[in-house]
Automatic annotation (TrEMBL):
InterPro entries: DUF6533. The lineage of its organism: Eukaryota, Fungi, Dikarya, Basidiomycota, Agaricomycotina. The chain crosses the membrane at residues 12-33, 45-67, 113-131, 172-194, 214-233. Coiled coil: none annotated. This is DUF6533 domain-containing protein. It comes from Paxillus involutus ATCC 200175. Keywords: Membrane, Transmembrane, Transmembrane helix. It holds the Pfam family DUF6533.
Amino acid sequence: MDTVSTERYLRVASLSIALYDYIITLPAEWRLYLSQYRDSRLSHVCILFILIRYVSVMVMVISNYGVFATSFTQESCQRYHDVSPTFKVLQTMVSHAILGVRTFTITHRNRRIGIVLFISFVVATGLEWFTNFYDRPAVVWDVSYSIPSYCAIDLTATLVTGKVSNPDDTAWIYYVVVMVYDLGTLVVSTVYLVRHNVNGRLSRLIKTMIYDGLGYFVALTAVNIFNVVLYRTSDEGLQSSG
């Protein structure tokens, strides 16, 4: 019961922060759409913005539906439980694309860097799809007699073959892969900015780009480390909130 309450408190807190962020950024979003309309074209920056913003919204809605919905059966949970990790990986792919495009642009579209970024993107996303879906059966958790069951990932289910499923041995690797890719793009872009500073001193623009990249990386890494901690805990209830 305490674990379930903790998980739900964490989810409500994250939903509140996400909703607040969405509301306060609506004016900036509207200005972006107006500028695109005046230019009569949709830039790749705008497309990536729309994708990361609204795929993230879908991730929040779908993942929390599995916890707060009250009508799950084992059959409906089985149909549902692949949807949430699918959108989670799609969200990560968009985030990787944003960092990759940023790094590629900073390097003045260097062809070799572009090839390395593309290969890294394919390898990283392939590992992320694998670690999110490998050996993770769905299960309806009966948290108590007074609280309805909810759909989660069974981290200790015994398969038909008699093998004990232990997907937390691989699921946490997803977040490690994400952090490695993010760190790689940050290092490449930062090194290139510093090396190609023509004045010998960091201009305000270059400083802003470096600090922006560092801030984005720190925020993403903090969230990913938190998720790794959740997945490495022995408490299955907390693992399902990761």
